[in-house]
Amino acid sequence: MPELPEVETVRRGLKQLIIGKKIVGVDTDWEKIMNGGLDLFRAQLIGHSFTSIDRRGKYLLLRLDGDLTIVSHLRMEGKYALMTDKNEPKQRFQHVWFTFSDGSQLRYYDSRKFGRMTIVPTGQEYAEINGLAKMGPEPVASDFKVPDFKARLMRHKKAVKTVLLDQNVVAGIGNIYADETLWMSKIHPEQAANTLSDAQIQVLHDNIIKELATAIKFKGTTVHSFVDANGASGGFQNKLEVYGKKGEPCPRCGTAIEKIKVNGRGTHFCPHCQVRTDI
DNA sequence: CTTGCGACCTGTTGGC
DNA sequence: TGCCAACAGGTCGCAA
After folding, report:
1. Spatial distance from the CA of A273 to the C1' of C12 (Å)
2. What family is this protein classified in (predicted)?
C-alpha cells in the first residue's frame, strides 16, 4: 500500500499511541511476517517498552528501550492499529499482535501477508537490513542532491519511471508518486533514464521533493485501502493529477490520460504533455 | 553491474 | 447476474 508519505503518516499517528507501552505478549497466526520467528520475537521483546518511532524510506523503525528496534515494512497492505482492550475479537487480516501491560494491544493487519518485521540492535539497521543498506537519499533538499541524482540516472538506460521506483536511487517513491512527479515534470515515463537533459533532471528532482512533502501534509493518499494508525484515510487522493485517471482529461491540456504498462506496473501519463525526447 | 520477470499472497474489480 | 482473468501504494531472487 504505502509510499513514503503514507508511511510517514502512519509513523506520526502510531507514535502518539504506543510510546511508553510495555510489551507483555507477542502472538501471530502467520509467522512468516516475523523474521526469525515468533519465539525470537517473544524472547527479545517481552519486558521492553516503545520509546519512539523513526522512518527511513518506506521502513518504520520502532524503537524500544534496551537498544532494540523493530524494522517494519508494510509492503502493499500492512496496517497498524491500537486496540484499547486486548480482549476485542481478532479481526479480519489481523496477523501479528503485541499485548501491553496496560491491557491494550498493538495489532498488525495485512491482507496479502507481504509485510515483514525484523528485530535488530538499534544502530545496526543499515548493517542488517538489505533494503536499508544501500537506500538512496530521503527526498528532501538537505539529502537529495541533483548531481548524485544525475549520476544515478546516467547509469540506467531503462525507463525513467522504473529508475524512480528503485529505492537505491531516491527513497520513498512508489507507483503513484512516480506517475505524478513525471507528469508534473512533463517527462514520458518510458524515456530512457540516461537520456534526460540537465533541465529535465533538475525539474524532476525539484518536483519529487515538492510532491512528497505536499502528500505528507495531506496525510497521504488513499486509493485502495490505506488508513493511518487511527483508521483515517489520507487526503491527497483528491490532489492526484494522473494516477487512476485513465481516459480523463489532462489537467494541463485536456488530452485523455493514457494507461500503459511499464516493467509490469500500471502507468498513467498524458501523451500530449509528456513527450519522449529520446526517440 | 544492469535488466526483466516470476514469486510472494489474497481481495477486489472490470469486462464479457 | 455471474464468472474469472487481470490488477493492486512493493520488494526480492534469479538467470541472462
Report:
1. 34
2. Belongs to the FPG family.
CATH placement of domain A146-269: 1.10.8.50
Q: How far is the CA of A141 from the C1' of B2 (A)?
A: 28
Kindly give the confidence (pLDDT) of every residue in chain A, 279 residues in length, as a single tens digit, with 9 standing for 90 and above: 699 999 999 999 999 999 999 999 999 999 999 999 999 999 999 999 999 999 999 999 999 999 999 999 999 999 999 999 999 999 999 999 999 999 999 999 999 999 999 999 999 999 999 999 999 999 999 999 999 999 999 999 999 999 999 999 999 999 999 999 999 999 999 999 999 999 999 999 999 999 999 999 999 999 888 888 998 899 999 999 999 999 999 999 999 999 999 999 999 999 999 999 988
The residues of chain A that CATH labels 1.10.8.50 are 146-269
- β pairing state of A265-269 and A258-262: antiparallel
Supply A11's cell numbers: 509513523
Spatial strand order in the sheet of A59-64: A50-56, A59-64, A68-73, A116-121
Residue A119, helix vs strand vs coil? strand
* A128 catalytically annotated: no
Say how far A182 CA is from B6 C1', in Å.
27
In window 130-189 of A, residues with CB < 7 A from nucleic chain C are 130-131, 165, 167, 174-176
A265 touches strand B (CB under 7 A): no
Stated length of chain A: 279
Residue of least CA–C1' distance to B8? A114
Q: Where in chain A is the domain with CATH 3.20.190.10?
A: 4-133
DSSP character string of A52-111: EEEEETTEEEEEETTTEEEEEE-TTT-EEEEESSTTSPPPTTEEEEEEETTS-EEEEE-T
